[in-house]
# Entry
Amino acid sequence: MLKARGCRVDMILGASTVAKIYAPIEGKRSVNSLKIYTEDGSTGEMGKVTDPLPSLISEGAVDVIYSCGPMGMLQAISGITSNTDVVHQCAVEESMACGVGICMTCVLPVRKSDGSIAMLRSCIDGPVMDGSSVAWELVGKNAMTP
# Structure
């Protein structure tokens, strides 16, 4: 949809191996450019999707990063984009047992503007979150315990 609106869209797709790369042809059709990274070097460039980000950001080639994938990768991207003007919107991977916010299994610690922590329900308040507001160091922990 971004490309259809005239926005330039560049995609970095990555996985541990070529066997785990999903739909690269479809991905290529929906973007202006596609770069593939595999950790074992079996296709594309050897490395992780986070590898080119610092240089792309310093070159001014990135305004917004939309990411999805393992929580560790999302956290790494948030770390790379912190202290920059780049917006990081990430689709978090939390278990969503009920999908309607009742069970509270999908809660994610997020920093509010006053610095306090709120536990947001990924299924209701997300799953796309502002990566800079996620309290990554508290993910998977009881964030309400002092």
Summary: Strands lie at 10-15, 33-38, 45-46, 64-68, 87-91, 107-111, 117-121, 128-130.
